Amino acid sequence: MAEQNPDKGKGNDTTEKQFATKLIHFGAEIDGQTGASSVPIYQASTFHHHDIFNPPTYDYSRSGNPTRQALEDYITLLEGGVRGFAFASGMAAISTAFLLFSTGDHIIVTEDVYGGTYRLLTTVLNRLGIESTFVDMTDFEAVKAALQPNTKAVFMETPSNPTLKITDIGEIAAWAKEHELITLLDNTFMTPYHQRPIELGVDIVLHSATKFLGGHSDVLAGLAVVATESLGRRLKQLQNGLGTVLGTQESWLLIRGMKTLQARMEHSERSARKLAEWLDNNPDVTRVYYPGLANHPRRDVHEKQSKGYGAVVSFDVGDGERAKAVLSRVKLPLVAVSLGAVESILSYPAMMSHAAMPREVRHERGITDGLLRYSVGLEDIDDLIADLEQALKGE
Asked: Where does the record locate the signal sequence feature (predicted)?
């Protein structure tokens, strides 16, 4: 798979660094005042003005906080953008980004997008007059056909959640630029370790940082990175005006979690590949979704734009009753909403992440009643497989 060019490091040393080094040496890893080996938590809502005629860098924590700024600079470095923003949740980041658009605007969206994004578009933004069309983005002709005179943006999610369809990022981004459309991409599943969309022409990259970036099921957060200063100014105005900011404690927790991102992703991906191959040969499973499988229809596209396959495997056990039986029998993974943690998480999209989608809409997108999504954590993969085997067999 293609290696992506590393970005310039921040801080005093501007030599190019590999990703693992940037995770640890990101510019704020040592406190300049005390030499502390951890970013300080500035638990303050407001800041003293020593000179009223020369306002300080920080005046009120909604508008800016040194701990949150360290995090925002950190994700900017990792994604290779020009400015980053930290939000109270992944949906806060996505919602704020969508408010770049106005009444009468139209957005083309990946059809099997995360259920929360679908809910936002179909129950909130539609009331504000922001229109959306959901398209299978593996079909470039369908994407082009969705263009309308009022189209302003394309929202991608690749791999998609939960059926792991692959969008050709560069192809869509180049086409969007021809039509002066803003491109947004949810990079939660891949993280900047595996996939850096800005390098492929995307304008805004979004994360539910609650997932792989945080990595420990202990923080709720969202992140956004922009490719241009003009988009940065617009998104900053929205973040400040809406007040959708991440708190100081959560910013610090996220910085701590991100330092181990590569180590966690490498371990989980090795295990996920083994799990996907085992499921693909299991007669109790009707279908497996994982970009690392040789039979994945868009594996070549994914390998062109991503460094790895990720740690999420979806599989169909045939019907809802069998799915619920498996969920009741597993002993090791959490049965829960969310993904991307040190512990494995098994979820049921029909009643969890995509419960906001009407049943017929889910089924049109391949999100059946028998579909399960497995986020592989750091446990021994042989133990995870043995546990899932007994759950499938009902022993």
From this structure: none
* Residue 60 sits in the same domain as residue 98: yes
Assess whether 251 and 319 both reside in one domain: no
Tell me how far apart the alpha carbons of residues 344 and 381 are, in angstroms, rounded to a whole number.
10
Question: Does 10 map to a domain?
Answer: no
Give the active site residue among 17, 42, 83, 114: 114
Structure tokens at 171: 């192809």
Helix 381-393 and helix 320-329, axial crossing angle in degrees, nearest 10 = 130
**Is the separation of the CB atoms in 125 and 132 below 8 Å?**
yes
**What pLDDT digit, counting tens, does each position of 269-313 carry?**
999 999 999 999 999 999 999 999 999 999 999 999 999 999 999
Catalytic site residue 270? no
Residue with tokens 């809802």: 320
Q: Which of 62, 270, 304, 324 is catalytic?
A: 62
Known active-site residue 387: no
**Stretch (H or E) spanning 208:** strand 204-208
Q: Which of 204, 135, 144 has the alpha carbon at shortest distance from 172?
A: 144
Name the pTM for this structure. 0.94
Other CB atoms within 10 Å distance of the CB of residue 3: 7
Could you tell me where the DSSP H helices lie in the chain? 19-24, 66-79, 90-98, 115-119, 140-145, 169-178, 191-194, 229-242, 248-258, 261-280, 299-305, 320-329, 359-364, 381-393
Return the DSSP state at 246: P
- Check if 62 is active-site: yes
Domain shared by 272 and 254, yes or no: no
